[in-house]
Amino acid sequence: MNLVEIVILSFGLAMDAFAVSITSGFILKRPKIRHALKMGFSFGIFQSLMPILGWCAGTSLSAIIRNVDHWIAFALLFVIGGKMIYEGIKPGAENDNSNPLDFWMLMTLSVATSIDALAVGISFAFLKINIILPVIMIGSITFALSAFGVLIGRKFGHLFEDKIKIFGGVILIGIGIKILAEHLLN
């Protein structure tokens, strides 16, 4: 996996967190820089930790399923991407009036937006991809987009949220197709 693919994957994984951050900025009404940094840090840390956990789990399983690992990576990315697209298309009740910066709410949001990164970590293990650079990129890009999302959420939150999830889902499905095609053509 080259640097461009890692950056594209990182943006794809960050779309859920970005969408939640925009919504959170909208809910907070007058978010401050410290609110943006707090949410960005929390989302970035969880997006960095989940691929590591997935990679560790996948590494222990890779010897068992080596012959079908590319199908598993494709299926995981396809399901996650499809879920993101579905969530972006379906009319949702995302206007939650709870405080997204409450500790437990922030932890719940951080875990929920990083589950897809866990599956990507499993895929990395199956494909024998070095995890260090992707983890740094995923965490950094998620941090930056999430912090930015909080700040723009007040003015533009209602316009972008669903479209961002659809875009992220398309990116993840595209990467899954690329992985499958590379293995089937080799």
From TrEMBL:
The gene is mntP. This is Putative manganese efflux pump MntP. GO terms for molecular function: manganese ion transmembrane transporter activity. The chain crosses the membrane at residues 6-28, 40-65, 71-89, 101-125, 131-152, 164-181. PANTHER family: MANGANESE EFFLUX PUMP MNTP-RELATED (PTHR35529:SF1). Keywords: Cell membrane, Ion transport, Manganese, Membrane, Transmembrane, Transmembrane helix, Transport. Belongs to the MntP (TC 9.B.29) family. The keyword Membrane applies. GO terms for cellular component: plasma membrane. Its main location: membrane. Coiled coil: none annotated. Probably functions as a manganese efflux pump. HAMAP family: MntP_pump (MF_01521). It is a multi-pass membrane protein. The keyword Membrane applies. It is found in: Cell membrane. InterPro entries: Mntp/YtaF, Put_MntP.
